[in-house]
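One thing: can you check what follows?
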Amino acid sequence: MKYLLLIVFALSHLTVCCQIYPDSLNNERDEYNLGFEKIIPGSNSSVGWHTGITKSGFKIVIDSNEKHNGRYSLSIECINEEGASNYAMTGMFIPAKYVGFEVEVKFYLKMKNVKEHVDFPFRIDDGDDDKLQFTNLLSRRIYGTQDWKQYSLKLPLQKESSKIYLFPLLYGSGKMWIDDIQVLIDGVDIRFARFKPNYNPNAPKSINYGNNAAASGKVKVKNAELYYETYGLGEPLLLLHGNSQSINVFKKQIKEFSKSYKVIAVDTRGQGNSTDNNSEPLSYNLYAEDIKVLLDSLHISKVNILGWSDGGNTGLILAAKYPDYVKKLAVTGACTNPNEAVSSSTLAEVRKAIEGLKDKSDEKSKYQVKLFTMLLTEPHITPSDLKYIKAPVLVMAGEKDMILEKHTRFIADNISKSQLFIFKGASHYVPVEKALEFNNKVLMFLNRD
């Protein structure tokens, strides 16, 4: 588990590092330096390969003594005890601009005295830098000493694919060499694979939702300031995120919904780019009051709302207390009372997380305690409150949601104009896990007269 968490962290950071260096994209026939034969003058580094995450105690260099073919290979070596419990990786970014259904990566690997394991994470992202597909060697647990041996990894090439990432990696002590990497599109070497007919190498960069100054605004509320961003034209659609999240978590929804709605995405107080100077405990009633002030400040008298988790709780309170403000409401993973909505083991996990944060003195940790504490104590929405909701409400959750399905059904049963939908195979994070299906369901609801 520790290794998996490290990989998630490392890949998210190495993705950024690889994007900074596009030189490897500019060759006419995509002669990527997959054999490490092109050396950066005056260095011991290979063209197109970039060290994104190298913990102390490691060395990544081009090796002219050990190679499978040609003149060089790439080596990653743990050089002292400090690296024995760490890892190091290098990476290459290749645009997924090819016509095909499958990407295969073949490579030769050699290792010496590897105590933990070597790996080769292989990932495909979409245009928003979100992971579409991922695989690696972890299930094979490759370690020890061995001579050159070829390995293969495969992933489907979806039409949304935008970037291919390769990440040779050494975890723990020992030394590894990698050489003669080959990338195949439907069995054809990438040098000869066909390009997508509509591929645009100068496509605009994806919008940094949640940190897009051009679309942003701020509104003062009680002892706080709310940060929001606005996209698109049409009827207003307010997006409310969950606990410890921000606007960015809705990027797949903003991109789609702004085609037909004026999307207003908000950072809840104290989260994202919003501030909070209130010393009192947090509550969803306070969140609802904040949103009412925001809507009044923007001169919006009636709004559609999509709320996820905490945002769903806030949406339910808004629709009950201020029914004239809400045209339609869609919620996913919402609850009315934590003691009825989730399992005792989930509540225990939250308590444990709070205890782990209490010894920390930084402001971020202190605020996180307030956020997690609210999960244990809030909300207190009664069946009578739900019956005050007059707007049409789409009540959603994942089949494997932390919110118990019987509770999601309870919410729907107590709202007069409700629809219920459970996403098969999804968890509490269905807006991310099943973005296309989720967006279609919400849009069908909003667009229906």
